[in-house]
TrEMBL record:
It comes from Algoriphagus halophilus. It comes from the Bacteria. This is 6-bladed beta-propeller protein.
Length: 384
């Protein structure tokens, strides 16, 4: 199996190099909504490790890969040849431990990285040695934990961090802030990003659940790009003014199911229906000025009722039913139009690391392949 997989990748790489210039030329002449795009596999990183490894980050110089075993929570530090440099587990009790990881680890230089948690930021050397803990003056918390999400970004002398807990009254959206800016040198936390006045969440009379306004963001050069999970608006903030967005763009998805905010919330503010609404799950500013967005269109009330019908407690069955009618995947947004879903090979699971349009790393879809080794796939976006 290993030999066959690698031969396939080599064959694809040789073919794609010959066609790449032609595909780029075609791509620029075709309107974005009409383009047929795909994530093309052209390389891979093979690690001799039995387990479900997922990529968290790549060092700035591109030489070191930080992975985690989803079964054991072991962290593995890998070089570009797939050799294991370090393997350890800091998620358990001990002097170097962290608790409740809230997102993917982040390299802050070639020798050190951060683990974001629901309570703080924890800084480690590649060897696993604890270097520092950035603790806020409040008790951190989270209403939604997506351990594979991007919850901290470094830009200049600051970390931009997704953490809750500063505001005891979480439903007071008008007066709260959605991210924290953490000074690298002092460790001081500063609340940033209020609810934009044009957002539906600025209406104090409307009813929303915590999942609805879960933040998704990216930082590039002098701007911070921000989206709420259940609102198809892209807010652009200047890093010199994080109180009000400089620009707002509506993302014209073909379908995106938003909460009916006129209806009251059930079961203390949450039910399974919340997870079947439209959701924007990831955002990445591309070097071309476009945005790569991962989203789910969501289900109408009738579709949601059908997905939940006859299922008492098996959430997995509900999601399997929902997947049959849901639209889920990656699209490109250029500020005006949205592409079709970008096609990807069944070997590919979730996007793990975006470096550029020509270097996008995906984790292996473990449901499709059973190996005695782990693979991370390197892809690029091309015109089919």
């Amino acid at each position: 199996m290993k030999l066959k997989t690698n031969l396939l990748i080599v064959t694809l790489a040789v073919f794609s190099i010959a066609c790449s210039e032609e595909k780029v030329a075609e791509q620029t002449s075709i309107p974005l909504p009409s383009q047929n795009l795909e994530f093309e596999i052209y390389d891979s990183l093979v690690v001799d490790h039995l387990g479900n490894l997922t990529l968290m980050d790549i060092s700035p110089d591109g030489s070191t890969f930080l992975l985690q075993d989803q079964g054991s929570n072991d962290i593995l530090v890998i070089n570009g040849q797939g050799e294991i440099l370090y393997q350890y587990n800091n998620s358990e009790d001990g002097p170097n431990s962290y608790i409740n990881k809230s997102g993917k680890a982040l390299f802050i230089n070639n020798e050190e990285y951060l683990i974001p948690t629901t309570m703080n930021l924890v800084q480690y050397k590649l060897s696993g040695e604890l270097l520092n803990t950035f603790k806020p003056e409040f008790s951190g918390s989270a209403n939604l934990i997506v351990s594979s999400s991007k919850s901290v970004i470094k830009q200049g002398e600051n970390y931009f961090f997704k953490i809750q807990g500063r505001y005891p009254e979480q439903n007071d959206l008008v007066n709260s802030r959605n991210l924290e800016k953490v000074n690298v040198n002092t460790g001081e936390y500063q609340p940033i990003i209020p609810i934009p006045k044009s957002s539906k969440f600025a209406n104090p009379e409307a009813n929303f659940a915590g999942f609805d306004y879960y933040p998704v963001f990216d930082v590039d050069q002098d701007s911070l790009y921000f989206i709420f999970r259940n609102e198809p608006n892209l807010y652009t903030f200047s890093l010199s003014n994080l109180d009000s967005p400089a620009f707002t763009k509506t993302i014209p998805f073909e379908e995106f199911i938003e909460r009916n905010s006129s209806q009251g919330l059930e079961n203390g503010g949450f039910n399974i229906r919340d997870l079947l609404l439209g959701s924007i799950n990831d955002l990445k500013k591309m070097e071309s000025g476009e945005f790569l967005i991962f989203y789910t269109s969501g289900l109408t009330d009738q579709e949601a009722e059908e997905a939940m019908s006859g299922v008492s407690s098996d959430f997995n069955q509900i999601f399997e039913n929902a997947d049959k009618v849901n639209t889920t995947g990656y699209v490109i947004f250029d500020g005006q139009a949205v592409s079709k879903l970008i096609e990807k090979n069944e070997l590919l699971s979730n996007l793990a690391k975006f470096v550029s349009r020509d270097e996008i790393w995906f984790n292996l879809n473990f449901s499709e392949v059973e190996n005695d080794y782990s693979v991370i796939y390197k892809t690029r976006i091309v015109q089919k």
